[in-house]
């Protein structure tokens, strides 16, 4: 066999290997195609470190876009897309949120600035190891951001995926679009939580096509995401879909995590619907009106920071609705009526630093001692601190050099 024949045989051998393994190589970038219940999807193959490879699939839809008549409604399953191959090589848009939320995201994803109501997508990171068909445990991660900022792709799942774990991150509706509620059956709220359940259900039904084990799904979340996975654990709608739970810097027992009782439209509901020009004594008619509002108009209102809380307690958050959350977290914990094999609870390093940094800038300058600035921030958030008698006053007495007038003159009293 001459050199030319050798080269031709080698070429066809490589072509056969690539074809069999659903791999394509374009412009030095490796792609991979996987097939699951809704259709086919093409992702990227990335070399992380030490030569280890990870498959990345960005922007797989798990529900139809929550726009028009689907706004302020539970998510609907996405329709199959036939024989076409969905491109999953670009990050999906974040859900609508204030400008500061997009800046928050940019700290993790450089130069990212996309947001849209069409945002119900998930991302999957799959280890590409020597034993390619091995079934692996799954980590389902819910991002934080006080229920009104953030997106799933802030958490880069590659670092964990190389450790033989399939990692899934997802977006869910935020702020008023995800948690506006009127305390009745017409406008029950919790749309963002129902998004999380829809994504978890999608993972439970499809993750085996990505080498994931649907019987070994761990729910993980940070901050509001930690609260979220705790609520998912307690909800009767998620039973049988997960095995373990990790709550990082967020607890379902936190006073800000859930609205425990709400039997009538509150001031934030009225302010939002009024701003949209949807005024009525019927919450059903208000919902229909909001569903007709132009998407850009709603997104612009959210972008300008409508509903952003000046305290640690978000105005728009999950609520005890009798359906997703049949009772308060405290009562559900006491009942023990939930099925988790294990629960891990902890705190992330530097938790809350973003808020402290912002308030430190507003409440003082570099000439003000650090202790004094810290006590100022504590005073601003006094109503959000644990119910420990005189927690702020005791610290002020211990640090007698702190000028109380400076503390009170902070932005929190302006």
UniProtKB/TrEMBL annotation:
Q: Which UniProt keywords apply?
A: Membrane, Signal, Transmembrane, Transmembrane helix
Q: Which residues cross the membrane?
A: 6-28
Give the originating organism.
Answer: Tegillarca granosa
Domain Carboxylesterase type B intervals: 35-358
Q: What is this protein called?
A: Carboxylesterase type B domain-containing protein
Q: What top-level branch of life does the organism fall under? A: Eukaryota
| Family designation | Belongs to the type-B carboxylesterase/lipase family.
């Amino acid at each position: 066999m001459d050199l030319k024949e050798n080269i031709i045989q080698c070429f066809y051998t490589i072509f056969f290997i690539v074809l069999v393994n659903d791999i394509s190589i374009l412009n030095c970038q490796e792609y991979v195609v996987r097939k699951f219940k809704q259709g086919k999807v093409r992702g990227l193959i990335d070399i992380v470190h030490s030569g280890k490879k990870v498959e990345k699939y960005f922007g797989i839809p798990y529900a139809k876009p929550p726009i028009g008549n689907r706004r302020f409604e539970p998510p609907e399953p996405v329709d199959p897309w036939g024989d076409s191959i969905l491109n999953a090589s670009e990050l999906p848009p974040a859900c609508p949120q204030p400008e500061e939320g997009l800046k928050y995201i940019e700290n993790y994803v450089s130069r990212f600035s996309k947001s849209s109501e069409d945002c119900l997508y998930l991302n999957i990171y799959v280890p590409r190891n020597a034993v390619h068909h091995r079934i692996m445990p799954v980590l389902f991660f819910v991002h934080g951001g006080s229920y009104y900022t953030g997106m799933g792709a802030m958490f880069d799942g590659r670092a964990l995926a190389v450790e033989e774990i399939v990692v899934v991150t997802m977006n869910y509706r935020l702020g008023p679009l995800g948690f506006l509620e009127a305390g009745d059956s017409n406008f029950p709220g919790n749309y963002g939580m129902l998004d999380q359940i829809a994504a978890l259900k999608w993972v439970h039904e499809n993750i085996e096509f990505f080498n994931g084990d649907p019987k070994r799904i761990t729910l993980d979340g940070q901050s509001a995401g930690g609260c979220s996975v705790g609520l998912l654990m307690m909800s009767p709608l998620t039973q049988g879909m997960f095995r373990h739970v990790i709550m990082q810097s967020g607890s379902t027992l936190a006073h800000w995590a859930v609205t425990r009782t709400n039997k009538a439209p509150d001031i934030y509901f009225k302010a939002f619907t009024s701003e949209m020009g949807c005024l009525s004594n019927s919450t059903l008619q208000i919902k229909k009106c909001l569903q007709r509002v132009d998407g850009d108009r709603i997104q612009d209102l959210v972008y300008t920071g409508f509903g952003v809380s000046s305290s640690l307690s978000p105005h728009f958050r999950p609520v005890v609705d009798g359906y997703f959350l049949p009772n308060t977290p405290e009562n559900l914990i006491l009942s023990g009526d939930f099925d988790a094999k294990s629960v891990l609870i902890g705190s992330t390093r530097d938790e809350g630093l973003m808020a402290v940094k912002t308030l430190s800038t507003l409440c003082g300058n570099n000439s003000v001692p650090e202790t004094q600035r810290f006590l100022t921030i504590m005073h601003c958030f006094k109503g959000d601190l644990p119910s420990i008698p005189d927690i702020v006053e005791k610290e002020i007495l211990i640090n007698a050099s702190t000028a109380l007038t400076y503390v009170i003159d902070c932005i929190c009293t302006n």
